[in-house]
Design brief:
Helix content: 10-25%
Strand order of the largest sheet: 1-2-3-5-4
Strand content: 25-35%
CATH topology of one domain: OB fold (Dihydrolipoamide Acetyltransferase, E2P)
CATH class of one domain: Mainly Beta
Radius of gyration: 26 Å
CATH superfamily of one domain: Nucleic acid-binding proteins
Number of helices: 4
Largest sheet: 5 strands, mixed, barrel
Structural class: alpha+beta
Shape: globular
Length: 182
Amino acid sequence: MKANAVVVFVVLLLAGCAGIPEAVDRPVSAPEIALAAVQNDPDQYRGQVVRWGGSVVKTVNNSGGSQLEVLARPLQGNSRPTEAGESPGRFMVASDDFLDPEVFKSGTLITVVGALSGVKTGKVGEYDYHYPIVQVEGLHLWSPLPERRPAVHDPYWDSPWAYPFGPYPYYRYRNYPYHFLW
């Protein structure tokens, strides 16, 4: 009986750690609709549901809702966008709700699920750009990952020529002046 409880606990723990966030865990029309394909032929993909993600470039609010300009990034297995690497382009997220610019500030990672509603022409610098528009059905704001600190190694104790019994005898007896007699 105990073994079954442990197995159930481990399975639930692993399922909770690796899942897609509830807000964006919805069925999509096609798993991989490329951003460039939508830019080239928006009418073919109109109404299809996509799951895209990336980092917010700009948030614009008006009386009808909010729009996010997003620099697209490839999604990982849990639907979190990667933080580095090449981007396939940009897209717009249209929401009827107010999205606070301080919450959805530049550089924040998001994943969105929604129907493609067309293409909007805008500018990136002086360049005319065609932004596919995703009408929000689900939106997840990702919190930043904790900063990883590099491990610091002592070159003496991590070497194969360290004290024959490892670092522990040194640390155990370092406060005793006559530890070499033990």
